[in-house]
Amino acid sequence: MTDVHAATTRAHREQWARVVAALTRRFGDLDIAEEAAAEAFATAVERWPVDGVPPNPGAWLTTTANRKAIDRIRRESKRDDKQREARMLQDDDPPEPTGAIDDDRLRLIFTCCHPALALEARVALTLRLVGGLTVAEIARAFLVRETAMEQRITRAKAKIKATRIPYRVPAAEDLPLRVSGVLATLYLVFNEGYLATGSGSDPVREELTDEAIRLTRLIRALLPRDGEVTGLLALMLLTDARRTARISADGELVALAEQDRGGWDRALIAEGHHLVRERLATGEAPGRYQILAAINAVHTDARDVRDTDWSQVVALYDQLIRLDPSPIVALNRAIAVAELDGPDVALAVVDRLDGALANYHAYHATRADLLRRLGRSSLARAAYDRAIELAGNTAETAYLTRRRDQLNRTL
């Protein structure tokens, strides 16, 4: 039974986006696609423990979801819709033009990231339908309430249906209007895979990081001269290169300073560095992802944490904060400032972010570390407690708990 449960969980992670994308292509309706996919997975939970896991779980799920969708259409169709229904249920109709790249999930991303939708709605909808993230996980990524996120996703799907947004990779001249939302989405999918937010999730979801990288490579093939596409790919590669060193054998998060750098993937680092240098050679002003990639290039260039060029990291964050003056960027800059100018200077910056990041676990974790370094143990312990309360990932919780308990033993 445990093996069947694991197979079902793995199938959901690996096949959700494929099933939703295939149904969207066939039926042209996101609600039908998502609901039929959910019903197919619910059926798998009931049937697989009895019948066994099918040899090809993806094909089984797609076939079942197609049947569920057809059943729904037949139930809901009115008499004057019979002709439309008949056309929809035909498998041999000529497919709609799909664009330069024949990839169902990439087309689904571009459908969800239409400029008619607000940017946050584009990202949230794509995380749900393509990334397979739960509404709760997406709400945590946006730091908003789950009910508000549910409403945002529902409105976005309704607008796509009402305005008949097509399911295809747009023409070349339309790509620039879409790409910002697509990149933002893929970055969040990657981040959810690199360190999952769900309390019941594995700390690392490789299927999400791998898929985000694969799709970003496809977009780079569409837009090879777009600096931000290249920058995002470089950022993902340089971050993913550290994946195996970030979680200990005991399932605990390993901070950057404590990671075994010999375990980093040097091939991914070399490719990421090449892409960063390629963008620098153009002389063009870098965007957000290019600067983040450059920051990661500095970190991965250091063979030991003591070799890190913190002045360069802070200078890059200064450049980034002019483009993206968000509280999270300010928090990450403060972490670098602590290494360059000391924890007291950084803490003054962090404390000013309390209003914006009061419910963000990384804010409290950062503040706890700075207070610990300043010898303010009681305040550090309280900050660790709040970070543990807010952290959703088991690996982060284990790390923060150990740091807090170490602190307690010194009191």
From TrEMBL:
Residues 73-100 are annotated as: Disordered. InterPro entries: DUF6596, RNA_pol_sigma70_r2, RNA_pol_sigma70_r4_t2, RNA_pol_sigma_r2, RNA_pol_sigma_r3/r4-like, TPR-like_helical_dom_sf, WH-like_DNA-bd_sf. SUPFAM superfamilies: Sigma2 domain of RNA polymerase sigma factors (SSF88946), Sigma3 and sigma4 domains of RNA polymerase sigma factors (SSF88659), TPR-like (SSF48452). It comes from the Bacteria. Keywords: Sigma factor, Transcription, Transcription regulation. Residues 73-90 have a biased composition (Basic and acidic residues). Belongs to the sigma-70 factor family. ECF subfamily. This is RNA polymerase sigma factor. It comes from Paractinoplanes aksuensis.
